[in-house]
Amino acid sequence: MRGTRGAEWNISSVQYDLLEHLSSPLKLQDSYQHQYLILATTTEANIKFIMFTGIVEEVGVVSKLDNNDSTGGTSLTISIPSGSQLLSDCHDGDSISVNGVCLTVTSFTPEAFTIGVAPETLRITNLGDLKENSNVNLERAVRADTRMGGHFVQGHVDTTAKILSVTKDGNALTFRFQPARRDMLRYIVYKGYIAIDGTSLTVTKVNDQEGWWEVMLIAYTQERVVVAQKKEGDTVNLEVDMMAKYAEKSLGGVVGSEPGSVASFPFIEKIVERIVAQGFGAKQ
């Protein structure tokens, strides 16, 4: 990944760390965090690196939807709650995650901002389902000194998922999802991270055979994210943990198969499950 002044995060070093520390998943976690600290330090000084944490800052409201704006494309104007500081340090060209999709601010006021949405984005995310008065999750791109309360989220949606069921468990809600792309299930592991509409959540159950996974929303989270307002049959945006993709690519080279090939899955799944079981990054 190369910046405007030639700064580069050497992905091969991540691969080296993955292979070197497979015998100790806890060392792997430390190594990954170290890589991010190096990247973040380089980023603040030299490059524009877009990253989110999956911790929703505000729930905004679509106040205007224009399917044929001045550029001939689609734009959304999103209003933020009164007194919100979300746009206090905003500039034209800044990135904001809207339901987990990294989008560029084209204009703003203290109370609202406008973003352009590409046709491809409308096709592969649930943003095409938005209407005026729809609620959306909002998060600004992180700074290098931001506390990592969630996990590393890029704002690049992998696919959508359908809500199969919503079940009460005390004051919590259990959501069961089925991805539009079943191949994404290989990146979803028990107690692993997942971003749903841009919200960092922990996977509580996975059934690869039936093609679904579950997350649980506590009462606090229900009050602060849009997922809690959704019902069976609704769709959400899904972004899997990017470290699972890096692990697959690195380990695929070791076992002599291309990333995504069936031959690499059993070995990789065992490694990932071992890492997760020993505490790699998941919130409890």
UniProtKB/TrEMBL annotation:
Signal peptide: none annotated. Pfam families: Lum_binding. Homotrimer. The lineage of its organism: Eukaryota, Fungi, Dikarya, Ascomycota, Pezizomycotina. Residues 51-151, 152-251 form the Lumazine-binding domain. Pathway: Cofactor biosynthesis; riboflavin biosynthesis; riboflavin from 2-hydroxy-3-oxobutyl phosphate and 5-amino-6-(D-ribitylamino)uracil: step 2/2. It comes from Gibberella zeae (strain ATCC MYA-4620 / CBS 123657 / FGSC 9075 / NRRL 31084 / PH-1) (Wheat head blight fungus). Lumazine-binding repeats lie at residues 51-151, 152-251. Catalyzes the dismutation of two molecules of 6,7-dimethyl-8-ribityllumazine, resulting in the formation of riboflavin and 5-amino-6-(D-ribitylamino)uracil. It comes from the Eukaryota. Keywords: Repeat, Riboflavin biosynthesis, Transferase. This is Riboflavin synthase. Gene3D superfamilies: 2.40.30.20. GO terms for biological process: riboflavin biosynthetic process. Its EC number is 2.5.1.9. GO terms for molecular function: riboflavin synthase activity.
